[in-house]
Design brief:
Domain Tyr recombinase: 202-377
Protein name: Integrase
Helix content: 40-55%
Keywords: DNA integration, DNA recombination, DNA-binding
Shape: elongated
Organism: Rhizobium hidalgonense
Largest sheet: 4 strands, antiparallel
Strand content: 5-15%
Number of strands: 7
Low-confidence stretches: 388-392
Family: Belongs to the 'phage' integrase family.
Number of domains: 3
């Protein structure tokens, strides 16, 4: 056998003429007319000859080719087709390269365009990052089953019900993403885990809101010209959500109109029109005061960098021993509209930036009720600043 092996040398390979050159033991060097070459191993399995490529001579040395040939000859001696075995091992390796954390990151990247601000706030990825990936991130997604998911989410299923629900929904998206990539995953595993986890005991509650009759009293306590006080006052007067208010930039205001970019509106998708907010005289006065404290064009900067956080306004109300929270002022405004005015439903809902009606109806209705909302917010400002109740 020794005489049949290792017939070639590195020099003979380099200087070989075009054609096929045997090294022994089924290893051949195929030299092409263009000067390139290929290593090929010939073996017989189940009475059938198989030719297995071992790579280009430019990338695989003679020594490496011999080592590979020896490995696959050993496989063939077990009556296993080395070509099929290599493909099987490649598929197995591919499965282990696709860890859940990799799939989750890829799924997140592919969905960024659908998320507000391209998902920079991190809310889509956070439930996975905090509660799933620490336990399952390094596990190949094809090996994760409903038991793994159940055991991972059980600690928070009832204690942090909403977060757990979001984490499970994100996992479902990840599994569908993995399936679309061609991975052999159990796409039903998240739904099976949901069945194993059972009904959540936690019942979601609405964010505490202040009764609209009590708003003037609280508004009067926001007497200084600090960023937090000014931000809360404008939040109350406009009924917008915290995020667009905190990121209010000088460029968004023109005259008495504040235009919130469509992608900053909750639940809005691409190509959604910007949302115009009419500013009352009181709101404009606050904007002028905030301009004196602005930084880089942002009217409500934080102490160090960026803009104030949602928690900053929330803590102020907490320190005042109030149950209500900043987001609740949207409910205060909506209740005032319902109980103290005779505003049509569509106008009232548009006031809060809600989408009203179906797609066809919205296609034909081009108005955003700007003037009606302007009048309403002036009346709301008068109520907030002096407690007047206008039943009109």
């Amino acid at each position: 056998m020794g005489r049949e092996l290792n017939k070639l040398t590195a020099l003979s390979v380099r200087n070989a003429a075009a054609g096929k050159h045997a090294d022994g033991g089924g290893l051949w060097f195929h030299k092409r007319e263009d000067g390139g070459g290929q290593w090929v191993l010939r073996v017989t399995v189940h009475g059938r000859r198989r030719e297995m490529g071992l790579g280009s001579a430019a990338e695989v040395s003679l020594k490496e080719a011999r080592n590979e040939a020896a490995k696959w000859r050993a496989v063939a001696r077990q009556n296993i087709d080395p070509i099929k075995e290599r493909e099987r091992l490649k598929r197995e390796a591919a499965r282990h390269l696709h860890l859940l954390e990799e799939i989750a990151e890829d799924a997140f990247e592919s969905r960024k365009a659908e998320l507000k601000g391209d998902g920079t706030a991190g809310r889509w990825f956070t439930p996975l990052k905090l509660h799933v990936l620490p336990k399952l991130g390094k596990v190949p997604v094809a090996e994760i089953d409903q038991i793994d998911i159940r055991d991972t989410l059980t600690p928070i299923w009832h204690k942090k019900a909403e977060t757990a629900r979001k984490a499970l929904n994100r996992l479902s998206i990840c599994f569908k993403h993995a399936a679309a990539l061609g991975l052999d995953v159990d796409i039903q595993a998240p739904d099976k885990a949901r069945a194993l986890l059972g009904q959540q005991r936690h019942k979601p509650s609405n964010i505490p809101a202040m009764a609209w009759r009590e708003v003037p009293g609280f508004y009067g306590t926001l007497a200084d010209e600090s960023v937090t006080h000014l931000a809360l006052r404008l939040l109350i007067l406009t009924g917008v959500r915290s995020s667009p208010l905190r990121f209010l930039h000088e460029s968004q205001i023109s005259g008495d109109i504040w235009t919130i970019p469509g992608d900053a509106m909750k639940g809005r998708k691409d190509k959604t029109p910007d949302f115009r907010v009419p500013l009352s005289e009181e709101a404009l006065s606050i904007v002028e005061q905030a301009r004196k404290l602005s930084r880089d064009g942002f009217l409500f900067p934080s102490v160090k960098r960026g803009v104030i956080s949602d928690m900053t306004m929330g803590r102020l109300m907490e320190r005042a021993q109030l149950e209500a929270r900043p987001h609740g002022f949207r409910s205060s405004l909506r209740d005032w509209i319902a109980e103290a005015t005779e505003t049509p439903h569509d106008v009232a809902e548009t006031m809060l930036g809600h989408i009203v009606g179906g797609a066809v109806e919205r296609a034909y209705r081009r108005t955003d009720f700007l003037e009606q909302r302007r009048n309403l917010l002036e009346r709301w400002a008068k109520h907030v600043t002096n407690g007047a109740i206008l039943n009109v």
